[in-house]
Amino acid sequence: MTLIVSLILPLLALWLWWPVTPLSRRQRRWHIGITVALALVGLGLATLWRLDMLAYAAEAWIQLVFGWVLVMFVLLFGFLLLRALGWLLSRLAPRGSTIATLWHGRRLNHAAAAVIVLLATLGIYNGLKPPQVRERELVVPHLPVEMDGLRMAVLADLHISPVKRTWRTQRIVDAVMAAKPDLIVLPGDMSDGQLADSARFAAPLAQLKAPYGVWLAPGNHEYYYDYTDWMGHFRQMGLGVLENQTVRLTINGRTLALSGIGDLAALKARPYMHGGLKPDLDAVVAAAKGSDVHILLAHQPKQARASAASGAVDLQISGHTHGGHIVGFDRWVVAPFNDGYVRGDYKVQDMTLFVSRGVGQWDGFTARLGVPSGIEVLVLRSPQR
């Protein structure tokens, strides 16, 4: 993958500056050289962390800078496609029109390069700042009227790391507790890095409390670092860990089965995975049998089709997509890799799927533009009310 990217990024630099006029040969070389150098800096940083020679505390910051460079080239690619389309359409303009030369003019492309740098920087800022609470109602099939109005806070994709310090985790916890949820769920990707590197930044999670508990299921990033140690640590913090397990909650005399399953990443063996378990939908379906309503925590929304096909899950709560990160990128890149599910609620057969936009994201691609993070408080509604 690194080899492929190392070939693509310099080609984007050539594509950006080669057609621009009026640039002298020397100016064109400088423009291309600076852009290629920026691409190589990003690739060098990626190689450095892949070699795994540094402590994770340093690698996390390297990932953040790499992500900043990567976002710039994602935005650049979008601009180049727009420029090519604009140039082709301008060929239809009357003879003598200056529209055709505008797209390859120096002023427009310099301005575009400056805007791309600013947008990438803004995107990183948006990704790192603490999320706001977003409250919404969600109709859940088969939810008894006795549970109507149940408030569930969803904290997906915290990705706690040395970059996202303790103060950020504390701000999130304070905001959740101020919302007064009845139930708190964390559908995966709580942390990044080894336990020794990131545990202290996760410490405020121990303050999470709710009448019907705080429950989590693993995500793919838990499989990359000390899986067993992290799950044990979360249990010591007082959080309920559901590893292909189900807990039955009695609410106003009715039973809510809440399950958590392993992540789909475990189905493909990778050398950088350190522990974890495969999802076992059959086990949680059997454990939830006889309950009034069944809610499943499954990190990746791609699990939804199997969950819905079982006929035994009423609501699946997922994360993983981070809401798609960037408007346009969400629909054209993120959606195709996640069965079309990006953020919000979907009807999958008779089941409702809710995909959280997440409260954080991996340091290697932290940007958010037009897709803010959010602490989502779902007010569950019965279809019978």
Verbal overview:
This protein is α/β, with parallel strands linked by helices. 41% of the residues lie in helices and 17% in strands. The protein has 11 helices and 12 strands. It has helices at 2-17, 25-50, 56-90, 99-102, 106-128, 166-178, 195-202, 227-236, 281-288, 304-310, 329-334; strands at 132-139, 151-154, 183-187, 214-217, 240-241, 245-251, 254-260, 293-297, 315-318, 344-348, 351-355, 374-381. The strands form 2 sheets. The protein has a 6-stranded mixed sheet with strand order 1-12-2-3-4-5, covered by helices on one side. It has a 6-stranded mixed sheet with strand order 6-7-8-9-11-10. Strand 7, helix 9 and strand 8 (293-297) form a beta-alpha-beta unit. It is globular and about 80 Å long. The mean pLDDT is 90.
